[in-house]
Amino acid sequence: KHQASPPHIVMVPSPGMGHLIPLVELAKLLVHHHNFTITMIIPTVGPPTKPQNTLLQTLPKSINYFFLPPIDFHDLPQETQTQTKITLSVTRSLSAIRNIFESLAANSNLVALVVDIFGTDTFDIAKEFNVPSYLFWSSMAMGLILLLYMPTLDKMVSCEFRDLAEPVKLPGCIPISGADFPESFQDRKSEAYKWFLQYGKRLHLSEGILVNSFMELEPDAIKTLTDDIGLCGPPLYSIGPLIQTSSYNGPGCLECLKWLDEQPRGSVLFVSFGSGGTLSFEQLNELALGLEMSGTKFLWVVKSPDNKASDASFFSVQSQTDPLGFLPKGFVERTKLGQGLLVPSWAPQSEVLGHGSIGGFLSHCGWNSILESIVNGVPLIAWPLYAEQKMNANVLCDGLKVALRPKANKNGIVGCEEIGRVVKELMEGEEGFRVRVKMNGWKEAAKKALSKEGSSIKALSELVMKLKKHKCN
Ligand code: UDP
């Protein structure tokens, strides 16, 4: 009865800007170029954050969104991992999601459900209404291979993965040591590990997997995912790089872009640990001193330190206290006279990375940040913190060869001298030159993937054709 109306898609992004941003970009692409309409159903754990609101308020009318009532975690033990909370925020929202889904199934030409890896429990709802489900994989293809191999590795390996003597060699991937496996795989007795094993199995219930990567960047991994009979996953569509195109106009944004306008070309290091990343008090201070010692210009998104967790601002994004108050004595005054600009909590990252004054990016290696760096040809300093970031950092340094990596001392802290050295090397040294040249090559490859006959555009049109073929009840 609704076949005449435009094809409609429901998306369920799990909490975290790194999940919301690429799904919003996918939604915009489908709406602007392929005449879909979209509803985003958004599970929450508290009031929406400013960056979340700003992003959603700029969406076109054909993308509708609902925030679900916040999920309460008071019953959980204090040490519950972020990844478990993300999953629970979706599973505890299932009946609210089902209500909206039911009404959309009755009143629109609903052709698909698209969710990220934390949302696979919603596949059951889609199945009930005979709507195909798709997974949006918001990290690199290699991570997907690891996830699909997890049930096998779980049977073969009896110790913790970090205690394996040899790096694990998976088809289509660079060898990876167990200690660099994603955080959720580090404690095999944990809830998070069990959830991820479960996700790996549930992937097979989807009609297709959309991966935010591209053939030219990860040819071996993507070919493995498409051709490896042993893996036998659902059809894969590598449609990346999808990066943030919305501009953010929150506090400090204009100032930050204006400051960049005044700096020489390629002279500024951008420093940011993503939406969730936080450092300990000691590490924050070493970083401040290291940046100052390097003599390099920097734009630093500063967050208040947290001595317990490296993802302390994951749900809140903004620091609850003034982050500048934690920096070394006199640092703010000394560096604001020309060397640096400090932005508390959130910057218009995608625009910053596209600015000609930026010459390097010290990053926590979140996948979206990596893609934004690639698209803009900005080489990196890899400073992984949590989730799958160590694995990403390895790929950046050893696989793609676009990043330098500072070494931590025996206490696990990266000292200020080491930071100063690596920053100078990236911005002025020979190694820095080499990674910059490499990065420019990947930038061109990304452009090619997104050009008219490019690999990602082709994959997207195949996907669109398949989506449009679905006939609703
Ligand atoms: N981001 C931003 N401003 C900030 C920090 C992050 O716009 O100050 C955006 C960034 O451009 C990226 C996303 O938030 O699109 C972060 O995703 P990523 O996967 O890099 O890291 P996560 O925050 O998920 O750890």
UniProtKB/TrEMBL annotation:
Listed Gene3D superfamilies: Glycogen Phosphorylase B
Entry annotated with the keyword Glycosyltransferase: yes
Annotated signal peptide: none
Highest taxon above the source species: Eukaryota
Protein keywords: Glycosyltransferase, Transferase
MF (Gene Ontology): UDP-glycosyltransferase activity
UniProt name for this protein: Glycosyltransferase
